[in-house]
Amino acid sequence: MLADNARQSISSLRELLGRIPIECNARQHLRRLPDGRVLADWFGCALSSVFQPIVRAGDGQVVAHEAFLRSLAGGEPQLSPWTLFSAAANDDHLLALDWLCRTIHPLNAIAAGDDSLLFLNVHGRLMSVVDKDHGQAFRKLVEALGVPPERIVVETPLEASLQPDLLAFVLRNYTANGFQVAVNVESVAQWQSISSTAWAPFVKLDGRKLLASGPLEPGNWIAALREETTIVVTHLEAPFPAGDSSGVWLQGNAYGKPVPHLSRLVVDAVTAD
To answer: How deeply is 142 buried, as exposed, middle or buried, from its count of CB atoms within 10 A (0-12, 13-18, 19+)?
Structure first.
């Protein structure tokens, strides 16, 4: 029965994607490129998605992807997405841009045939304007697209961890609506200080800072995290010495750069040029 429902959902999604026009249309906010990618129009800027694989440390298995926004001109990268968010004139524009991104990222993941976890970022400016209905509204959106909320990992920015009470409110908002959540922290010490207030099943640490801190003892900082937490080491330009890799995922150019088409199965780490 579940398999039949999944097939029907995929069929409906394919039908939905097929109805998105390829040609530009002033009355349509979405269109497709010939390669199947979905673009969204934002005041004349064409927005689309790229995806970076996240792999399991022990075997290189792709377990998730993180979506990033790209602004395109003629199908090629143009403006920085952070420039677009920074240029949003007010909170309403910021929320509308965020909503557009949250629509095209799942659509592009669907178009790529991916069914792994999808990490979606919350911009720092959004943290203070998210209200109690935001998570519910987003759940209705992804369910309308046929995507189970538990497949989406809503990721908060590093600056959010400086405000544990606000962070806890945002995390509760999304988990109450079936989403998974991830937090970015400066260090294990910071996570230890906020985890009792704002716990998350995924914790992201910048691999550059870990490597710069001296000889690593991965077992120590993994053990420092609460049970049932997966640590994701990010910004890796070279293979990471994960040691005891239980509960560790890896992300960075060493394991795959952000690209429009999703990586699958196993990624072999390569040293970046």
So the answer is: buried
Residue 153 dihedral angles phi and psi, to the nearest 5°: -110, 110
Amino acid found at 65: H
Per-residue pLDDT tens digits for 245-269: 677 899 999 999 998 876 554 555 5
CA atoms within 13 A on the CB side of 38: 24
Whether 152 and 123 have beta carbons less than 8 Å apart is answered as no
pLDDT digits (tens, 9 = 90+) for 70-127: 876 554 445 555 566 555 556 677 777 777 888 888 888 887 777 789 999 887 766 7
Measured in residues, the chain has a length of 273
What is the signed CA dihedral for 135, 136, 142, 147, rounded to 10 degrees?
A: 90
- Choose among 19, 20, 22, 51: nearest CA to 34: 22
Name the CATH architecture for the domain at 42-255: Alpha-Beta Barrel (3.20)
Take residue 101 and report the two structure tokens written for it: 């991104």
State the pTM of this model. Answer: 0.82
The residues spanned by each domain of the chain are: 42-255
CB 122 within 8 A of CB 166: no
Report helix, strand or coil for 188: helix
